Amino acid sequence: MYILRLPHYVLLHLFAALWLSLVLLAPARASGTPVDVLELEQGSVSLTEHFTVFEDPGSQLDFAQARTQTYRHTGQADQAISFGYTRSAYWLKVELRNPGAVPVRRLLEISNARLSEIAFYEPVEDGSYRAHHTGSALPYASRAYPNRYYIYALDLPARSQQTYYLRVASEGAKLIPVRLWDPVAFAAHQQRDYLAQGLFFGTVVAMFLFNLVLFAMLRDRLYLMYIAFVAITAMSLASQNGLAHEWLWPGMGGRWPNLSTAILFSLSHATVTIFMREMIGTRTLVPWLDKVLLAMLAWFLVSPVLLVFFYQQVAGAMTAIWSITSPLTLLIALVCVWRRQRSAYYFCAAFCVFFVANMGSALAALAFLPHNLITNFGAQIGSACEMLLLAFALADRMHAMRREKEWAQAAALTAQNDLIAGLKLTEQRLEARVAQRTAELQQANDSLALMSMTDVLTGIPNRRRFDQILAVEWTRAARQRSMLAIGMLDIDHFKQYNDHYGHQQGDDCLRRIAAAIADQFRRGGDQVARYGGEEFIFVVPDAHPDNALAVAQAVCDAVAALGIVHAAAPGGIVTVSVGVACGHPVGGAAPAQLVHAADMALYQAKELGRNRAELALGYARRSEDA
């Protein structure tokens, strides 16, 4: 039974199309207007629409020169200003107004950890400007505010309007999401942000360790591939969102923080391609498409080398190629779904979510889509969903492997039984030549017989099982010097019952009587078994004669209370007779002697009129004297 069906993927594509349409149709607003720092909705406001911008193609202008240039409106009103992959530096200008009567402190946040160089210019009292330089190309210590992004504290005097400048240069995509925060609101936002990051990476660590344990137990290399995928993807996301620069390599600068993200993402694509080929089995299922996957894998392994030497020249092209390989991978997965490959359903669902989220981020990096919460964190959201769905796929794989093993064992058992039957048939013709094999077969049959300890008709232990129980209780009673009671029970006139009502009705009568007898033995250690035919036997540890006789009489009463009609019986209903023997195990005595005494007491109960219990007094006295 397949858990996922193809229409689900159609719905996912429709959802993706709707999501992209909503993002693309986001309304634009006017830009370049001053920002009132006292009017912050929910503690923050996006500054994107309020910036004016100037492009410095040669990246050679200093601040004094840049101030004299003509700044134009960005024309962008989403959550980030996007210039795509260019070699130009960009100067941005924004005016902040404080109409209040007291000074105000605000925090300016640039929430893109991959901007290589950021120079922030704020006015000082003498009319000049003070510069703050940071960015991913500088060590983490260059940041004035400890955060995975870039935070600047702004102090605006009362009834003033200040102009601030930003210079941004980067080898990667120039995405500049800028917000103005109230400090209290930002503290709460930062706490939630790091909590969300902690939950995400905590989940990743848990999945990593859990599947590492599974790999150590099962030695299935698919789990090792999944572990590599999870680790590399988590590292790439940590590098992308600035956590790696904050915690893993805070002293690093230069090209590495940005370069590491691109390299790790390329290796992440490589590991998921390897994982896909192994999990779905594309080499045998779709060999012609498997060659496409191999070509993609080669590209993912070569691209890190190109990134090291030609990052700025190839970064944009690589992002575009990754945007093509993702739907191509999804298409191959859909072909495997069409071929009814079970694991392909899981992979297709996982990669579809990952593709939609990653495609949004890639198109935003190329400046084709606006930037908001979904596009900025699409890779992280999609990767989390993909990891979870692939973990479900591995769990399903384990279940399928266990089920296949059970089927194989069942088939082996059936084959073994067929072989035994064949050996039995051959034994009659080749007895002299297969004597040793016949002995082995007999030994196997004896072993199987020993395994059958339950009476099939009544569901209670059979005689073989009772003999084992009696031996254990006999040894325990001898060790503890306690008494042991044995009761033999026989259904009165049962042959006449079978002759009158038929064997099927007789079997039903045996089952009901067995259940009634078993209900009388609820104490731990008490055991009842079918001894043979209409005979039952029970053992009661640590029981004195009077107690044992009372238990036996209770059994008689319980059977009589069933009221099973027996037209051939004197009383008109089915009854039982019980003989009880009770004594101490003594030296030289055997359990069979106690059983024999109970059997004699049973005969005595029958001679005295049936439907009664009798105690073997002579044996009890001998045991007490001993």
Features:
56% helix; seven-stranded mixed beta sheet; five-stranded mixed beta sheet; 18 strands; elongated; 626 residues; disordered N terminus; alpha+beta
Structural commentary:
The chain has 626 residues and is α+β, with helices and mostly antiparallel strands. The chain has helices spanning 6-24, 63-67, 183-218, 221-240, 243-248, 256-285, 287-338, 342-365, 373-376, 378-427, 435-451, 463-480, 494-501, 503-519, 545-562, 591-607, 617-625, and strands at residues 35-36, 44-46, 52-56, 72-73, 81-82, 89-98, 104-110, 117-123, 129-134, 150-156, 160-169, 175-176, 178-181, 484-491, 527-532, 535-541, 576-583, 613-615. The radius of gyration is 42 Å and the shape is elongated. Helix 1 packs parallel to helix 8 (342-365), helix 3 (183-218) packs antiparallel against helix 4 and helix 6 (256-285) packs across helix 7 (287-338). The protein has 17 helices and 18 strands. The strands form four sheets. Strands 1, 3, 4, 6, 8, 9 and 11 form a seven-stranded mixed sheet that branches. A five-stranded mixed sheet has the order 15-16-14-17-18, sandwiched between helices. Strands 2-13-7-10 form a four-stranded antiparallel sheet. Mean pLDDT is 82; it is low at 1-30.
Please give the structural blueprint:
Elements: H1 6-24, E1 35-36, E2 44-46, E3 52-56, H2 63-67, E4 72-73, E5 81-82, E6 89-98, E7 104-110, E8 117-123, E9 129-134, E10 150-156, E11 160-169, E12 175-176, E13 178-181, H3 183-218, H4 221-240, H5 243-248, H6 256-285, H7 287-338, H8 342-365, H9 373-376, H10 378-427, H11 435-451, H12 463-480, E14 484-491, H13 494-501, H14 503-519, E15 527-532, E16 535-541, H15 545-562, E17 576-583, H16 591-607, E18 613-615, H17 617-625
Parallel strand pairs: 1-6, 17-18
Antiparallel strand pairs: 2-13, 3-4, 3-6, 5-12, 6-11, 7-10, 7-13, 8-9, 8-11, 14-16, 14-17, 15-16
Helix pairs in contact: 1-8, 3-4, 3-10, 4-6, 4-10, 6-7, 7-8, 8-10, 10-11, 13-14, 14-15
